[in-house]
Amino acid sequence: MDEHYFTPSPATDARRFPLRVRLAGRDLDLVSSASVFSGHGLDKATAVLLNRLDEISEPPADARILDLGCGWGPISLTAALTHPAAEVWAVDVSERARELTAENAERAGITSLRVVAPDEVPEDLRFDAIWSNPPIRIGKPALHELLLQWIARLTAEGTAALVVGKNLGADPLARWLGEQLPERDVAKVASAKGFRVLEVGPAR
Prior knowledge:
28% helix, 32% strand, two-stranded antiparallel sheet, alpha/beta
């Protein structure tokens, strides 16, 4: 079982190690841990999403952006660096992931990032964009519930960009989302290295 998907306080080794990574055109000296998803570097799926941001809908300059399942923070850090006037929320069930993202934001000089557990997001808060490498391996029922829960928190004009492996069901997921969200268009906006970037569009 992947503890980083399910466990708020995992029992795996929490030792941290340095992580040098390039995000938003900047070389950053960050920290990570084997106890979080893709702790040793930028995973292929997230890299595809971050490399294809110009192919998804551009949120407003002062947008509220959600990174759903932040891990050590690559998506939320990129969102904050590329949209300095935005309010970026990094959400993860894992306490260690949240600690790493918060520390990495500080290391990158980012002050606009809010790092919280899912139940700490105010119920009435709405987002202009969701960027996520969603936790596919939690299983289809849990994944479906998770995605519908958070997509429901988009503004009418808001969009969600999700990166999913083709062999992990990207195309069936896109069809399912389209069926569940008849008021929004769901499209494949990019494809690379076996991954799809799916976008849930604004409400019609």
